Structure formats: structure tokens, C-alpha cells
């Protein structure tokens, strides 16, 4: 990957439900370039959730809300009941959460049918009520942030929504540059974010369809912000955050990525049932196919395997091939993986 001229001042890891768990957060934080992570959304329906639920989604809360190498992690809440959202935010604050993020962007049908996520973008007054209740419930030193899309069915309420969120007390706003109806279909409308930047006084984070360094620079120029959130693009190119900030950083080779997958597989041993571990590696491989042609072949080789050791054996064969060809460094960004060689 070539370096870029326009670099972000702040890079955040997107809270991808079902993909970015605390092991993945730890790995991406170790690779480098990230300024903040956010948990997968924690669904709030009614009463206060027990501490064990928060710790399942957010084990970093017992490490001062930091990953192992000191990248801050915010807890993300999703729901439509202002009182319940506020009560759970206050509980998280008492437990030591460094910040509370509110999910107004999730496009999933099951979430929207239950009143959460992007469906709330149809009701600016409800956005304001949820944000303001949470802001009042947690200490002033704990940031309250939010993530939105440009709208639900269309973009007609986008400026009312951002005003509602800012006036409710949010200190930062992440904007996915598509509506719920547009889903994840290209393109992302980054130029709309610039209009939001011009309207609000709080920092705005651009998000959506950023897959490579060229996309990073184009997104920053079009959106008028120097802050960016990476999701699928970072899963496909794990060192993208670091490369976007550090012109001296080296792009990973395919052999290094295979070592990274072995590292990930080992990290799952303590927290994930054996039968689920192979599927999580396969899921990551699907995203890696966006950048690495070799990921297609490796996925075909592992897609029917059900035991972690069998998956690891295929990964090690791929590593051996790359070692023989001299196409491996043993690192991905700042993460040293030479002990796995």
C-alpha cells in the first residue's frame, strides 16, 4: 500500500456486532494506529443489566476500560427507553466505563423491529431524550458519544437528528455515510458528512466504505473531518489504521496474515467453545478475501473443517509456503508474531 498525504488525527475501531469481540479489539489495538475501540452493542430493553452481562461484552472494564496495550474502550448501548438506557449507563459508569457510546445506526431488521438502532432516526425528539437522559445520568468527566446513519429511509431528517444529539449533550458523533435503506451498498456518501461537520460544534467521525489508504484519504477530503472509523476495511486489512497514520509502517504479507490467524485462533481457546473457533477464523477469512487473493484458496481449504487443530494445520501449511518463498516478516504492524514461526 502507498502512503497518503492527508492523515487522520483520530482512528476508531467500529463496533461490528458478531465480529469485533474483545479478542479482535486486542489484536487490532496491538497492531497499532487505533485511538479508541467500542464494544459490540449491549441491548437494553428494560431493567438494569447484571454486571456479568456487561463484563461478557466489555471485559476491558476491569482493566480501566483499556485494551492490553492501553487503547481506550467505550461501552456501546442500544435501546429506545431513555430511563433504562440512562440507568444502565450509570451502572457502567460506576463499574469504571471510560465512556458511553449510543447506537443509533444499526440497520439490522431484528434490532429495528424492536425499536432500536437506525429506526430511531425517524424521531429526532427521541434521540434527544435518550442522549440527554444518559448525559444527566453519568458523571461529567465520562464522555457520551453517538453513532448514526444519514437517515432511515432517506436523508431528510439528518440535520434535525444531529442537532438533537448535540443538544442532548453528546461530545462526539460518528456518521456512517449511508441510510438504513441503503445498507452497505456502495457508494458511501461522504460529502454529506461535510455538511454535518459544518453544522455542529462537536467532533465528527466519518465512517463507511473505507477499504484502503486511497479510501481513507478520499473520505477525509470529502467529509471535511480528520477523524475516521474503520470497520470492514480494517478486518480486511488489519494494519490499515497504522498505515493511515505512519508512512514508515510496512504492509503485511500474506504469510504474516496467516500467522495472525493462528494467533487469533489461539486467543479463542480460553473464551470460546472449541466447536465455534473454526467458524470465527473462517469469518475473518471471508473479509480478508477483499485484499488477499490467497485468502480465497485458504477459505476453500478450511471451510469444511470443524476442529481448531485441523484449521491450524492448514494455516501452518500456508505459512510454510510463504517462508520458503521468502514472503514473510513475522509481524503485522506493531504485533510481533515470530514466536509462531
TrEMBL record:
FMN binds at residues 76, 147, 176, 207-209, 231-232. SUPFAM superfamilies: FMN-linked oxidoreductases. It catalyses: 5,6-dihydrouridine(16) in tRNA + NADP(+) = uridine(16) in tRNA + NADPH + H(+); 5,6-dihydrouridine(16) in tRNA + NAD(+) = uridine(16) in tRNA + NADH + H(+). It is an enzyme of class 1 (oxidoreductase). The keyword NADP applies. InterPro entries: Aldolase_TIM, DUS-like_FMN-bd, DUS_fam, DusC, DusC_C, tRNA_hU_synthase_CS. The record marks 43, 103, 184, 282, 287, 303 as: Interacts with tRNA. Residues 12-320 form the DUS-like FMN-binding domain. Its EC number is 1.3.1.-. Its cofactor is FMN. The keyword RNA-binding applies. GO terms for molecular function: flavin adenine dinucleotide binding; FMN binding; tRNA binding; tRNA-dihydrouridine16 synthase activity. Keywords: Flavoprotein, FMN, NADP, Nucleotide-binding, Oxidoreductase, RNA-binding, tRNA processing, tRNA-binding. It comes from the Bacteria. The active site is at residue 106. Belongs to the dus family. Catalyzes the synthesis of 5,6-dihydrouridine (D), a modified base found in the D-loop of most tRNAs, via the reduction of the C5-C6 double bond in target uridines. Specifically modifies U16 in tRNAs. This is tRNA-dihydrouridine(16) synthase.
Amino acid at each position: 500500500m502507498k502512503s497518503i498525504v492527508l492523515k487522520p488525527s483520530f482512528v476508531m475501531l467500529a463496533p461490528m456486532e458478531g465480529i469485533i469481540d474483545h479478542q479482535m479489539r486486542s489484536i487490532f489495538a496491538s497492531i497499532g494506529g487505533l485511538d479508541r475501540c467500542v464494544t459490540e452493542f449491549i441491548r437494553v430493553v428494560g431493567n438494569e443489566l447484571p454486571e456479568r452481562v456487561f463484563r461478557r461484552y466489555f471485559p476491558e472494564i476491569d482493566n480501566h476500560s483499556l485494551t492490553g496495550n492501553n487503547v481506550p474502550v467505550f461501552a456501546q448501548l442500544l435501546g429506545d427507553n431513555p430511563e433504562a438506557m440512562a440507568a444502565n449507563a450509570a451502572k457502567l459508569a460506576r463499574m469504571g466505563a471510560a465512556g458511553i457510546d449510543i447506537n443509533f445506526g444499526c440497520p439490522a431488521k431484528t434490532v429495528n423491529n424492536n425499536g432500536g438502532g437506525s429506526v430511531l432516526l425517524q424521531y429526532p425528539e427521541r434521540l434527544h431524550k435518550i442522549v440527554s437522559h444518559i448525559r444527566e445520568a453519568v458523571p461529567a468527566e465520562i464522555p457520551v458519544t453517538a453513532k448514526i446513519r444519514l437517515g432511515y429511509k432517506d436523508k431528510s431528517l439528518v440535520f434535525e437528528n444531529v442537532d438533537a444529539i448535540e443538544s442532548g449533550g453528546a461530545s462526539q458523533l460518528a456518521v456512517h455515510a449511508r441510510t438504513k435503506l441503503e445498507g452497505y451498498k456502495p457508494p458511501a456518501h461522504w460529502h454529506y458528512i461535510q455538511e454535518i461537520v459544518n453544522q455542529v460544534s462537536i467532533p465528527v467521525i466519518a465512517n463507511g466504505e473505507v477499504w484502503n489508504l486511497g479510501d481513507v484519504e478520499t473520505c477525509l477530503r470529502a467529509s471535511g473531518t480528520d477523524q475516521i472509523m474503520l470497520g470492514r476495511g480494517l478486518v480486511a486489512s488489519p494494519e490499515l489504521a497504522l498505515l493511515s497514520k505512519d508512512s514508515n509502517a510496512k504492509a503485511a504479507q500474506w504469510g504474516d496474515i496467516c500467522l495472525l490467524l493462528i494467533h487469533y485462533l489461539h486467543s479463542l481457546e480460553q473464551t470460546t467453545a472449541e466447536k465455534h473457533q473454526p467458524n470465527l477464523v473462517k469469518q475473518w477469512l471471508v473479509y480478508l478475501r477483499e485484499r488477499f487473493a490467497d485468502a480465497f484458496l485458504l477459505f476453500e481449504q478450511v471451510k469444511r473443517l470443524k476442529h481448531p487443530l485441523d484449521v491450524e494445520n492448514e494455516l501452518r501449511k500456508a505459512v510454510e509456503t510463504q517462508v520458503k518463498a521468502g514472503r514473510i516478516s513475522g509481524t503485522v504492524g506493531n504485533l510481533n508474531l515470530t514466536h509462531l514461526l
